[in-house]
Amino acid sequence: MKLKTVEINGKQYAEIDTAGLPVYVHDDGKEIGFDAPLATKKITELNGEAKNHRLAKEAAEEKLAKFAAIEDPKKAIEALEMLSKSTRKS
């Protein structure tokens, strides 16, 4: 994206749209006003969301690490069921 400029008295100035936003031109020629405060707010929100996802992932990985030594979960469940049955019979 490139900032759209206008020349006034030999100096370059950013062109602004009707909302007072600086206009940027995309590679395809589409012009759009850039709302920096809104973009900054959205980036902050997304960073917070990413942090929450990262923390949740780390917590899940920490809980899952306790089971890392189990190579075959199906066999482990079968063994627990057998142990449970033998404990009930005793």
Could you walk me through the main structural features you see in this protein, from its secondary elements to its overall organization?
The termini are far apart. The longest helix is centred in the middle third of the chain and has 30 residues. The model has no long low-confidence stretch (mean pLDDT 95). 52% of the residues lie in helices and 18% in strands. It has two helices and five strands, in the order βββββαα. By secondary structure, it is an alpha+beta fold.
Features:
single chain, 90 residues, alpha+beta, 3-stranded antiparallel sheet, two-stranded antiparallel sheet, 2 helices, 5 strands, Phage protein
In brief, what are we looking at here?
With 90 residues, the protein is of the alpha+beta class. The chain has helices at 36-65, 73-89, and strands at 2-3, 5-8, 11-14, 23-25, 31-33.
